[in-house]
Amino acid sequence: MNKKHIMMVSHDFLPNIGGIAVYVYELSKALIARGHQLTVLTQYASFSTQNKEETIDGIRVIRVPIAPIKKIEDIQYRKRMRQLIRQLEATETVDVIHWQTLNKDAQMMRGLHVQALEVYTNHLSWFRMLYNEGNTAKIHQLIREPDVIICPSREVETMTAALFQKAKTVYLPNGVDEHVFYPDAATSKLVREQYGISQQETVIVSTNRMEPIKGMSYLMEAIPSMLQKHENLTFLIAGDGSQYAEFEAMIEKQTQNSPKVIFTGRLTNQDIRRVVNAADIYYPICIPCARCDQYRNRCLCQFRGTNFPRLYSTQCWCLWPKTNCGSRK
Predict the structure, then answer these.
(1) pLDDT number for residue 289
(2) Count of beta carbons in the 10 Å neighbourhood of residue 230
(3) What does the alpha-carbon distance between residue 136 and residue 293 come to, in Å, rounded to a whole number?
(4) What is the pLDDT of residue 310?
(5) Strand 281-282 to 317-318 pairing
(6) What is the pLDDT of residue 319?
(7) What angle do CA 275, 281, 282 make, to 5 degrees?
(8) Of 246, 250, 276, 287, which has the maximum CB count within 10 A?
């Protein structure tokens, strides 16, 4: 195999625990295991002007400083990341530059012409929303056509190919590491004990950001009546977001602060794996439907597949919310 020097460019990276941060980290480790050289270029919040370099599990990580001031942080990121990439291409052999985020990295790469193979992974639901709204001009405003675009779903692959004819479009779904995601009765027992849940309870687990786009309101609205109908039922809800306080207050009021609804708050990726092992039923998220103002299920096989590992890890039932549109009527 021809070994490559691959530079991952991602505004979102560890110690943040977001999906793209974990994607970049895990993919980098896998590529290192295949003998490639990996450098992750990212940012850190600071008024400093000095880049920071460190090594995380064999991954070389270089961070550019970004002042935590809303009006200038994006400008600084674009300027300093472009400078860093130009410097590395001038002083090192760089074979691939693989960038990740649709807004911040996309805007940064628009003003930069690189010598290496330019690859973009089309992660975000925002792309699908813009496409389904017919706002393709906004997409082209955000993304300058790279050499290769990786698509984690067939739907995104079709949309991407329609908009970017010159780029090579590649369907590459997210995978499952069977050595990491597997049912573990001992972990399930420990997690239930940690949160004070009886082993006899039926546990419904949700692990999502609490943002309007995720459709978590469906679950919150259903919880009070479900608790009234089912005596041995507990909800374990992991994650945070802009709606966290609203949902917590809503559930406290409508269930009289029932101990059978547990909000864990934000968890690391490792802790998410533990929590899901306690599930008898897993609740997947919803996304806005392109055909109406209702929400439609985020189908496990149609979209990014991020829920697959969680289901594999527990072999639990999947609870699909019923909506007034699409195939989930």
Answers:
(1) 43
(2) 13
(3) 20
(4) 47
(5) parallel
(6) 53
(7) 65
(8) 276
